[in-house]
Amino acid sequence: MSWLRSLDEKDQIIFVCRRLYEKGLVAGADGNISMMLSGGNSVLITSSGTHKGLLTRDDLLTVGMDGKVVKGHGHPSSELAMHLAIYAAEERTKAIIHVHPPWTLAVTLSRGIFPVDYLVESRMLLKDVPVVPFRRPGGEGLAREVVNLLGEGPAIVLANHGAVTRGKTIQEAFCAAECLENTAKIFALGSMLGTPRPIPNWKG
């Protein structure tokens, strides 16, 4: 998907939102995506209540780092505070995806942790995946909890809510979201068949 970077930011977000919807990582108006715009003073983010599979350019807003809408109509995603907090805390992050992935949520709801030590691909890409204790969606408390748990890996699970992935590009954040959900699905299927065995003698 290197060609994705040839698109402007709006078309990149629209393409990824549609893929997330097709893959079942969001349903209807679930989730949100943002990208840092050049200059680092504003972000492009999906507006509140928009169907991600039917997103249009008019459904994207430019918002300053102070949270005020600079360009576009409507209200930014209710998770704007979380997006801005991550960008402020982590300079390398240029794109953020928040999804509601079914297998990821099913595993963490039942296990309380995310199983990164069972697949080589997930251990290499995701590294550690912290689970943020439940906080009210859209609140400053959730934003603080997420920032406090930012680590080397690109993914965080929000207990009873969803997951957040991030990257230097929207493609990186998208790949992390896919890997997160695929890992959870395989682990869940393995659990149905028996007792999953972690990678032996993993040295990182």
Can you give a write-up of this model?
The structure is a single chain. With 204 residues, the chain is an alpha+beta fold. It has one domain (2-192): Class II aldolase/adducin N-terminal domain (L-fuculose-1-phosphate Aldolase). Helix content is 36%, strand content 17%. The chain contains six helices and eight strands; from the N terminus they run αββββαβααβαββα. It has an eight-stranded mixed sheet with strand order 4-3-2-1-5-8-7-6, with helices on both faces. α2 packs parallel to α5 (140-148). It is globular. The mean pLDDT is 94.
Got a strand count?
Answer: 8
Shape: globular
Question: Structural class from helices and strands?
Answer: alpha+beta
Total tally of structural domains = 1
Order of helices and strands: HEEEEHEHHEHEEH
- The strand order across the widest sheet is 4-3-2-1-5-8-7-6
- Round the mean pLDDT to the nearest integer and report it: 94
CA-atom Rg in angstroms: 16 Å
Helical content, roughly? 25-40%
CATH architecture: 3-Layer(aba) Sandwich
CATH topology tier name: L-fuculose-1-phosphate Aldolase
Biggest pleated sheet: 8 strands, mixed
Q: What is the highest CATH level, the class?
A: Alpha Beta
Give the secondary structure arrangement, pairings included:
Elements lengths: L8 H14 L9 E5 L5 E5 L13 E5 L4 E3 L8 H10 L5 E5 L2 H10 L8 H6 L5 E2 L7 H9 L6 E4 L3 E6 L2 H24 L11
Parallel strand pairs: 6-7
Antiparallel strand pairs: 1-2, 1-5, 2-3, 3-4, 5-8, 7-8
Helix pairs in contact: 2-5, 3-6
In brief, what are we looking at here?
The chain is an alpha+beta fold and 204 residues long.
